[in-house]
């Protein structure tokens, strides 16, 4: 079975790890968000791709939820001591990856090729593709002005309300090599429990990706990132309340209009599945508290297709 999952960083990475554990790495292609990418201290950082890489390689820090386990922060401490740019938290082990990626990009290697090389070296068997090799950047409009994604999320602690989003470069972006073939060849399409606005929307803002999803002939299933109408972590619930008018399953599903056939929602939301229209609810426990829980969630999503 071929499965394609669209994914952001932390929530997506947890889910994708469960998916790979259940379906096997050879069955899984992950299309990762690059709208959060940034240049910091002269390096190209792809936070969502790296969260997925670290999770699939078993190198991630489960407690912190992002970055690598056994991390130290000496380089960043030196940067801060020297009055350098230290708002974006980069650990020492993490930095090594950014250095290698940045050098390869400067030499003209596409992001997808660098990512593939790093994934293979880390022993990741699933195929991890950035949505695009082209420059795509998420901008957040707030009452205090417009910010790049990381300025809003990290530097300002995502405290500003979101009035709108813009995906710079998306309209002209081409899908990374392999993305469309993976979608067209999939037996099942999945949307990870990621933030619909800032993790999934930038992926489907690439016109050819959206078109490939819209013309699918196989089921497409999203997993809701909300439990009881609340985000497990981060601003997804606040964004849905403000931009979609609510945090029920129908509001999440509304973000994926025309792109999904079913939505996996938590038992805590089971009484609130009205208004989904053609989208079928699948109710299960969706908190990925550990390896067994994330495998169960993957099984619920995979259950749409008979083995
Ligand atoms: P980011 O790129 O690091 O912000 O990560 P994602 O967009 O992939 O994931 C963020 C979303 O994951 C948040 O909206 C969380 O509510 C959701 N999330 C995190 N852990 C869980 C979980 O265990 N279950 C579910 N259903 N959602 C989760
Ligand atoms: Ca992200």
Low-confidence stretches: none
* Structural category: alpha/beta
Helix content: 25-40%
Q: Give a quick account of the main beta sheet: strands, pairing sense, barrel closure.
A: 7 strands, parallel
Mean pLDDT: 97
| Radius of gyration of CA atoms, rounded to a whole number | 18 Å
Write up this protein.
This protein has helices at 10-23, 47-57, 74-81, 92-106, 111-121, 149-155, 179-184, 196-204, 207-214, 236-243, 249-254, 291-302, and strands at residues 3-7, 28-32, 38-40, 43-45, 127-130, 137-142, 145-148, 164-168, 188-191, 220-223, 226-227, 230-231, 262-266, 280-284. Helix 1 (10-23) crosses helix 12. The longest helix has 15 residues, at 92-106. Helix 1 (10-23) links the parallel strand 1 (3-7) and strand 2. The strands form four sheets. Strands 5-2-1-9-10-13-14 form a seven-stranded parallel β-sheet, with helices on both faces. The chain is 37% helix and 19% strand. The termini are close together. The protein is globular and about 55 Å long. The mean pLDDT is 97. The chain has twelve helices and 14 strands. By secondary structure, the protein is α/β, with parallel strands linked by helices. Bound molecules: guanosine-5'-diphosphate and calcium ion (CA). Calcium ion (CA) binds at residues 8-9, 33, 36, 47-48, 199.
